[in-house]
Amino acid sequence: MRILLVNDDGINAAGIRSLQIALKQAGHQIIMVAPDRERSAASHSITLRKDIHATRIGVDEWAVSGTPVDCVVIALQKIITEKIDLVISGINAGQNMGEDVLYSGTVAGAVEAAMLGHKAIALSVNAYQDQNFASATSWFMRLMQEGIADMVKTNEVWNINFPNLTFEDIKGAKLTRTGHRRYYNFVTIIEETADSFSYRVGGNAPEWDFESGTDSEAVNEGYISITPLGFELTKPDAFPRIERWLENRNLMDPGLNNAL
Predict the structure, then answer these.
(1) Beta strands 197-201 and 187-192: pairing type?
(2) Contact 69, 92 (CB under 8 A)
(3) Span 26-77, pLDDT tens digits
(4) What Cα–Cα distance (Å) separates residue 131 from each residue in 2, 69, 148, 221?
(5) Which domains does the chain have, with CATH numbers?
(6) Which of 8, 18, 73, 120 could form a disulfide with 114 if both were Cys (CB 3.0 to 4.6 A apart)?
(7) d(C-alpha 148, C-alpha 159), whole Å
């Protein structure tokens, strides 16, 4: 298979390199296009009104001075000229479960690939330090052997999170939905004067809601979570309530504009 690898931890991060080596050893052709430095929590941002530089640093390896989404766009529209079978984003150093998917550059890279008409998988390990990338890589290679690339459809994203455990201690995989989490002490004040202050966003490790069937519950119990992500942003069950409000206020009356 021809596989595009991206991430948000940077092109020399341990997670993407572990995956690159394993996929190459399995006979896949790997093209790696990733940020030239860490771009964690870049979400789905793209770079506007600023030049972006792409530098070839090895055979089928490009470092890009932009976001993960920038990397996917330039990879699929400029760098790669032949058909790509799969786009993989990760393996990320840290989980991307629950609301993390909204902040994650890792997930955003996969989402952009899906929006451009490709199959995409996002991979993350549930640990902020001492990540067991060897275990996550081995488990993903097993999923590849079992045909995961055939199961993912065009324009789909599968978000996969691995427990930070040894290969043997991971119990298996579960199909999950996105859960919920809450960060406390989210903002740290670094310096403050009467009229200004400096701060950092970070805080303590998140507290998870281990609701049944969620990604966080599965990973907490030692399972790999597999969550198919969708892109329907409209909330249809709110329509009746909003329609009643519009009707009751005569805001749907076609003659309203003429009366104003």
Answers:
(1) antiparallel
(2) no
(3) 999 999 999 999 999 999 999 999 999 999 999 999 999 999 999 999 999 9
(4) 27, 24, 23, 17
(5) 2-181+209-234 (3.40.1210.10)
(6) 120
(7) 12
